[in-house]
Design brief:
- The complex is a heterodimer of chains A (673) and B (374).
- Chain A is globular, with a radius of gyration of 27 Å.
- Chain A is α+β, with helices and mostly antiparallel strands.
- In chain A, helix 10 crosses helix 11.
- Chain A is built from 25 helices and 27 strands.
- In chain A, a hairpin with a 2-residue loop joins strand 10 and strand 11.
- In chain A, the strands form ten sheets. Chain A has a four-stranded mixed beta sheet with strand order 5-15-13-12. In chain A, strands 8-9-11-10 form a four-stranded antiparallel beta sheet. In chain A, strands 3-4-14 form a three-stranded mixed beta sheet.
- Chain B is an alpha+beta fold.
- In chain B, 60% of the residues lie in helices and 14% in strands.
- Chain B has a four-stranded antiparallel beta sheet with strand order 1-2-3-4.
- Chain B starts with a helix and ends in a 5-residue tail after the last helix.
- Classes of the chains: A alpha+beta (673), B alpha+beta (374).
- At the A-B interface, helix 13, helix 17, helix 21 and strand 21 of A face helix 14 of B.
Chain lengths: 673, 374
């Protein structure tokens, strides 16, 4: 279908070239519903500095013509009634020109998506409209300009200058400029009332900001912050780096002396609380409530009405800053329609053709039933690789003296890793698609295949030997005794979000039972496991997330206690010891101290440098020798559903499960065929 | 009428009826109800399956057939692919192949490999009633595994799991029901028979218990129970505690029945004849409202069995590695298992049959408990 179209376009183009004497042709003649203009699949000689996109000046220089802009007819009414200015006025003076994948799309229609509930952990609708200063290109590793037109680092990565787009506007028509970034750093990140201490990951660098002019800002850091752009392109909390000052200042005490009084009158405890309902460190938190309708955004779609428990609807942003190569303002699609559904209903909705694209949080075991209904549901299934399978982390700082002692013995963790039959897990639960390996970052130069295979062989004999060595004597009932000679049980409270399927803990606990370790299973909610992690009362957690950015430069926290940047996963008393300078908590073992030291330097390194590789190797080595995270499988594909009616949606080559903020596609140039 | 004609014609029987004990009368009445007899036999079979689960099941519930994942029930043959008759029943060998398109694991039967099925084979050792060790199983194969009802996602034998699940589900149901009845009868009986201040206190206590919302109670209990407890222990504890709230319904019914009966002539005469309270309650009053109790009992049994499933949602019910009907059904709740592994639903058949059987049995027992009613 797509190929045919390309052939048609190609032949049309040749015909046009002949008639116009072979000049470089950028005609916008109508060609059977689609317009002939440069695309990714047929670039018409256009070259770009960054993949698939270029700046307007550059584009016009290459085509030799001025690009005329057209807007979505959806806004025609509002333009007529002077509610909206014309498209030339709405677009920045220098919009970003993107090359659609296959053809110039058509306006209209709605994109249908689904997730479990408001949070983005299960939704890609967040990524469909996402806009940040920079983004990762579809290869998930090249940083490209987005909201920011350009950036420039100084030589030691302590200063970065961002250039914004002149005339860029928020979704309410107000100008977006350097002030919005200054506001973010000075009045949110560094505000002592909102944040007692500077939040991670900004804390290590200690930022300050300076406005050069309306479209130029300079950020300065006390320590080098090489991971900044990777972080902004990736995901997490505090990663937007700008906020709508003109809107938020009415709630901020610095700009409105009455903010506190007004907040209290409105029923809030103080101004910080009210401010927090309009601005949140998590980008998706604000659109979960009625406040989301009011907050201006730069994203491709804006919340249209107050979300209900069933659905959330977004409408195209009339001020979105991108155009296609024919001058059409993006996005093509009028509405995003996101529904909240139980995960068990997902396959049904997909099979009935009610979903246009779905990948985030898809369980692998539904592949067969989806594949069998591919024709009927008019969708295509893809299996882009890139996920790490479930992991187990034993709580080495457990308050239980017996369990704490057992878990902190590295021989126990080796034994537990060796007792697992990863091949069998792969065959029975992951359709044989994964590869047995430890939980390690993908595509980084310092991880070898040997590292990946470390302690992954199925060797119950060796596991038994290690446990015997530890002095855990086998009892008459087939279970081992603790070092105190009494039987012990490990309680594995798991949540489906992280173990994928209840069969996984069932299978793993069987393997552990075979070497004499008694594990009780209990399915609980993610909320509960997080609460328990914060209280240090969980025996095993599986919440560890694989790193999601290619160099790991901005995410070292995934490889050192407490193994997460958001909430502690393991090693809370160690963290207490660190933050209290040794006055409370528990002194961590030497390897933890080593990791912390390395991490402090790590964030100042340039990816690819020799020191980066040296320290990367060290991080991996320490984690292997101590095996705090027991991995199972790697290279697991993520089921990706793409509806047949979606245009400009090429094959996914890679995928990231991480919150849906970083994404290997460009949803703003998708259109409904 | 027909019944009178019948008694007139069989004059001797009428005489026997007059001199028969209450128990005999009940049995005669019960025998007339064919459905109840069938239901009773079915339940008896279930109970036998439950008691001798280790012997009847060829494998332990956790044992996996790793070469036969997610595969359908195996057929037992007497005729091979060439139509030749084998006296010894057999199953065919198989190969596990993954469909390259749908990635589904398919077990392809290999008709060239014939695996005979034997009765009374030696297999995994187990303890009979916790007393002595035995290796004998009712049936089995000597090569590979036999999966009469197919296997689940992990290759576990559904037939074996069902046997063990029947044991757990029936016994846990029995514990819950008997506890409800013990307290319900006792408290309702005391309140109804003595009346006055005793009645007042017990009734107010019932009202208090009924006013406690159960959901927060369950959640609080789940936090309060010791963590070393196995899932089975936790569940029994929870059923007991639920029963301690759940007896109030039955208690009320018993009380109101007793209150109305207290003033009947036959009770009065028993009192005047100098019967003790215990004798009046047990010998005179209890038999006359037995039918109510039986209906209640047979209704609450299926309820407890079904409640087990819903409890597992809260993490309070039974969980792996313990198998019950609820646990087995829990894994068959989503669309992909329904379409890919439909034989998981054999469990549902067991639940439906047992619930129906209990109802039919209860129906027959109710009629039998009241042999004089027409």
């Amino acid at each position: 279908m797509k190929k045919k179209l390309i052939v048609v376009l190609l032949s049309l183009f040749i015909v046009f070239s002949v008639f116009s004497g072979g000049d470089k042709e950028t005609t916008t003649e109508d060609t059977g519903g689609y317009i002939a203009a440069p695309t990714v699949s047929y670039a018409m000689g256009i070259t770009t500095e960054f993949p698939q996109q270029l700046e307007l000046v550059d584009y016009e220089k290459q085509t030799g013509e001025k690009l005329e802009f057209t807007g979505n007819p959806l806004f025609a009414e509002r333009e007529k009634s002077k509610d909206l200015p014309s498209v030339d006025q709405r677009l920045p003076e220098e919009p970003l020109v993107v090359l659609p994948y296959d053809v110039i799309g058509k306006y209209g229609g709605q994109l249908k998506g689904m997730c479990i509930s408001y949070e983005s952990g299960t939704s890609e609708v967040m990524a469909w409209r996402h806009a940040n200063l920079v983004r990762f290109s579809d290869d998930m590793s090249t940083l490209v300009p987005n909201v920011a037109k350009a950036w420039k680092w100084n030589s030691d990565f302590t200063e970065i200058t961002f250039t914004l787009r002149k005339g860029h506007k928020w979704s309410d028509g107000d100008p977006f400029d350097a002030d919005d970034m200054v506001f973010y750093v000075n009045d949110i990140l560094l505000n002592k009332e909102i944040h007692k201490v500077i939040p991670s990951p900004w804390s290590g660098a200690v930022p300050s900001i300076e406005k050069i002019n309306d479209v130029t800002v300079k950020m300065k850091f006390e320590n080098a912050f090489t991971g900044l752009l990777y972080y902004l392109g990736g995901s997490g909390s505090y990663f937007d780096a700008f906020a709508p000052k003109h809107f938020l200042e009415q709630y901020h005490i610095e700009y409105n002396a009455n903010a506190d009084k007004e907040a209290k009158a409105a029923g809030y405890d103080n101004w910080v609380q009210q401010f927090g309902t309009y601005w949140n460190k998590w980008k998706d938190a604000v659109v979960a409530g009625p406040e989301g309708v009011k907050v201006p955004t730069l994203e491709s779609h804006i919340l249209q009405e107050v979300p209900t428990t069933q659905r959330r609807i977004y409408i195209a942003n009339p001020y979105y800053f991108k155009v296609d190569t024919a001058g059409n303002q993006l996005p093509y699609v009028d509405y995003h329609y996101e529904r909240f559904l139980e995960k068990q209903l997902w396959p049904l909705e997909i099979m009935n053709g009610n979903i246009d694209q779905k990948a985030q949080n898809m369980p692998l075991d539904i592949y067969t039933v989806l594949k069998e209904n591919e024709k009927k549901g008019q969708y295509e299934l893809q299996l882009p690789s890139g996920q790490v399978g479930p992991t187990m982390i034993f709580n080495q700082t457990s308050d239980d003296p017996v369990l704490g002692k057992i878990f902190s013995d590295v021989r126990f963790r080796y034994a537990m890793s060796l007792a697992i039959n990863r091949n069998e897990i792969n065959e029975s639960l992951f359709l044989g698609l994964g590869t047995p390996e430890q939980a390690l970052p993908l595509n980084v130069p310092y991880v070898t295949d040997k590292d990946r295979k470390f302690m992954t062989e199925y060797n119950p004999d060796k596991a038994n030997k290690l446990l015997d060595e530890m002095g855990l004597k086998m009892g008459s009932d087939g279970y081992r005794m603790g070092p105190d000679g009494k039987p012990f049980t490990v309680l594995w409270e798991y949540t489906l979000q992280y173990v994928w399927t209840t069969d996984f803990p069932a299978l793993v606990s069987e393997y552990w039972k075979d070497v004499g370790v008694k594990v009780l299973l209990k399915e609980v909610t993610t909320q509960l496991t997080r609460d328990k992690q914060k209280a240090n009362t969980l025996d095993i957690t599986s919440e560890w997330m694989a790193p999601f950015e290619p160099s790991m430069i901005s995410t070292p926290h995934l490889f050192l206690p407490p193994y997460s940047g958001h909430w502690p996963i393991m090693g809370l008393p160690w963290m207490d010891w660190k933050t209290s300078n040794g006055s409370s908590g528990v002194k961590p073992p030497a390897w933890v101290l080593d990791l912390w030291d390395i991490a402090a330097e790590w964030t100042t390194l340039v990816p690819g440098s020799s020191r980066y590789i040296e320290l990367g190797k060290k991080i991996i080595k320490i984690n292997q020798e101590n095996l705090p995270v027991i991995g199972t499988l790697g290279n697991i594909p993520l089921i990706t559903v793409v509806s047949d009616r979606l245009g400009n949606a090429p094959e996914w080559t890679i995928n990231s499960t991480f919150f849906g903020y970083s994404y290997p596609y460009r949803a703003d140039q998708w259109f409904i065929k | 009428m027909k019944d009178e004609n019948y008694t007139d014609a069989a004059n001797k029987k009428v005489n026997r009826r007059d001199i028969a004990t209450h128990g005999q009368l009940m049995w005669w009445q019960f025998k007339k109800n064919k459905m109840a007899i069938v239901a009773g036999s079915v339940l008896l079979i279930f109970i036998i399956l439950a008691i001798f689960a280790e012997f009847i099941a060829p494998y332990s519930p956790g044992k996996r057939n790793t070469t036969y994942l997610q595969s359908p029930p195996m057929k037992i043959h007497h005729f091979d692919s060439e139509g030749k008759f084998h006296f010894q029943a057999f199953i065919y060998g198989w190969d596990n192949k993954r469909d390259p398109e749908t990635l589904k694991l398919n077990a392809i039967t290999d008709t060239s490999r014939i695996i005979p099925v034997y009765l009374f084979v030696k297999g995994e050792p187990y303890k009979v009633l916790g007393l002595f060790e035995l290796k004998l199983h009712l049936f089995g194969v000597k090569e590979g595994m036999i999966n009469l009802f197919g296997t689940d996602q992990l290759g576990r034998d559904i037939f074996s799991r069902l046997m063990f699940a029947t044991r757990i589900s029936l016994s846990v149901g029995a514990i819950g029901v008997s506890f409800v009845f013990l307290i319900g009868l006792l408290m309702g009986g005391i309140a109804g028979y003595f009346g006055g201040i005793v009645d007042e206190i017990i009734m107010r206590m019932m009202e208090f218990l009924r006013s406690i919302p159960t959901l927060p109670l369950w959640l609080a209990l789940s936090a309060a129970l010791p963590r070393e407890w196995s899932a089975l222990k936790v569940y029994i504890a929870v059923t007991l505690i639920l029963a301690s709230v759940g007896w109030t319904n039955l208690g009320r019914r018993v009380r109101s029945k007793l209150l109305s009966m207290r003033d009947e002539d036959f009770i009065l005469s028993a009192k005047l004849a100098g019967c003790t309270d215990r004798r009046i309650i047990v010998n005179h009053m209890l038999p006359s409202f037995m039918s109510y109790i039986i209906v209640d009992l047979t209704i609450s049994f299926p309820f407890i069995i079904l409640a087990e499933t819903s409890l597992s949602f809260l993490g309070l019910g039974l969980r792996e590695p313990i198998v019950s009907w609820g646990v087995l059904l829990y894994s068959a709740q989503n669309i992909h298992t329904l379409s890919q592994i439909p034989w998981l639903l054999i469990t549902a058949l067991f639940v439906v049959i047992s619930v129906l059987a209990f109802n039919f049995l209860g129906d027959g027992l109710r009629d039998a408990a009241d042999p004089f009613s027409k």
